[in-house]
Design brief:
The chain is of the alpha/beta class. It has two domains: 2-158 and 338-356, Glycogen Phosphorylase B (Rossmann fold), CATH 3.40.50.2000; 161-333, Rossmann fold (3-Layer(aba) Sandwich). 45% of the residues lie in helices and 15% in strands. It has helices at 11-27, 43-49, 68-91, 104-111, 128-134, 160-163, 167-178, 197-208, 244-250, 260-269, 284-295, 308-319, 322-333, 340-356; strands at residues 2-6, 32-37, 53-56, 95-98, 117-121, 139-142, 151-153, 186-190, 216-220, 235-238, 253-256, 273-275, 298-300. A seven-stranded parallel sheet has the order 3-2-1-4-5-6-7, with helices on both faces. Strands 10-9-8-11-12-13 form a six-stranded parallel sheet. Strand 12 (273-275), helix 11 and strand 13 (298-300) form a beta-alpha-beta unit.
């Protein structure tokens, strides 16, 4: 079985693809998996690091406004489609699985009519690539209901460490790992691998005003950002957290952005949160978080309105109320998908198997 995954560009596209790859190889170690990417994306580092083969195709970003790039788009797209089609023939691809982003457009168009296609959409509002691919795909999977026509609700493939995490059983180990006492209340703050200047700034203000009191803050500030304050018993800053499973197990509450992967992981492990959606793109982060907020598993505030006063007036009352935390945890977990990787793998294998039979 030869499976081609198209999901380069951002970690939000690459991570689900690699998690699916892990699941597929667990099912059948003899499966051949190739990931399509470009020389401009994070896949150049992330894919080889996970042990998978990466094939580069031309990047064809779609211009958002009229420009010279728009005039040359048809020629560049035709060239990318031809190169990708030739590659699919060389790989003897049995199925192409796309996760959106600019790598997926040439992959979908190259595979159309020749190789079965499975589209996976992580966000509540589908991007252009997946809207195109879903029109002629053999199967479509989604994370939030009604993001694409004909889609099966599957969720986002997650890492095994997150899928299998039992926060209660792992809490003691996690607290020891980060140097946090077992009886403390812990708030985890993170804004992705690069951190968030806005979140860091608000946390800095809170620390200066001693807003958190005895609450311990576990803070991932970002690889290139400085700590707002030195480490202390109540403040645990890190540039990067490489064991997010332990961070989730150590935490009682999360302050973070609302990327599709973040929302999927927090609901899978049942962590209550305050979502501060990143104010860019087509508003998909707010839409990603909305079902969790509606279910009672999280609160949400705009990036512009998020400040130290909001933390004091809205987050602290929740964090200080154990019964409220437990209620929110159950509500969050009710929307989680712990078997997404296995479910998507079954769908992919089914589509590929039908084509080969």
């Amino acid at each position: 079985m030869n499976i081609v995954l198209a999901g380069g560009g951002t970690a939000g596209h690459i991570e689900p693809a690699l998690n699916l790859a892990d699941q597929l190889t667990a099912i059948d170690p003899d499966i051949n998996i190739t990931v399509l990417g470009t020389s401009r994306g994070l896949e150049v580092d992330l894919v080889p690091a996970r042990g998978y083969k990466l094939e580069l195709i031309p990047a064809v970003p779609l211009p958002r406004k009229f420009s010279g790039d728009l005039v040359t788009l048809p020629t560049r797209l035709r060239s990318a489609i031809k190169q990708t089609r030739d590659l699919l023939h060389k790989l003897e691809a049995d199925v192409v699985v796309g996760f959106g982003g600019y790598v997926s457009i040439p992959a979908y168009l190259a595979a159309r009519g020749e190789v079965p296609i499975v589209v996976h959409e992580a966000n509540a509002r589908a991007g252009l690539a997946n809207r195109v691919g879903a029109r002629f795909a053999d199967a479509v999977a989604e994370t939030v209901p009604d993001s694409l026509p004909r889609a099966q609700l599957i969720g986002i493939p997650l890492r095994k460490a997150i899928e299998q995490l039992d926060r209660n059983e792992t809490r003691k180990q996690a607290r020891e790992h980060f140097g946090i006492s077992n009886d403390a209340t812990c708030v985890l703050v993170f804004g992705g691998s690069q951190g968030s200047v806005k979140l860091n700034s608000v946390i800095s203000d809170c620390l200066a005003e001693n807003t958190f009191g005895d609450i311990v803050i576990l803070h991932s500030v970002g690889l290139k950002n400085e700590f707002p304050q030195p480490e202390s018993e109540k403040y645990r800053p890190l540039n990067y957290i490489d064991r997010m499973d332990l961070a989730y197990a150590a935490a009682d509450f999360v302050i973070g952005r609302a990327g599709a992967m973040t929302v999927a992981e927090l609901t899978a492990v049942g962590l209550p949160a305050c979502f501060v959606p990143l104010p860019i793109g087509n508003g998909e982060q707010s839409l990603n978080a909305a079902p969790v907020v509606q279910a009672g598993g999280a609160i949400m505030i705009s990036d512009l309105e998020f400040n130290a006063e909001y933390v004091r007036d809205h987050i602290l009352p929740i964090v200080s109320d154990l019964s409220r935390l437990l209620e929110m945890s159950k509500a969050s977990a009710s929307l989680g998908h712990k078997d997404s990787a296995a479910d998507l793998a079954k769908l992919v294998m089914s589509v590929a198997g039908k084509a080969k039979s």
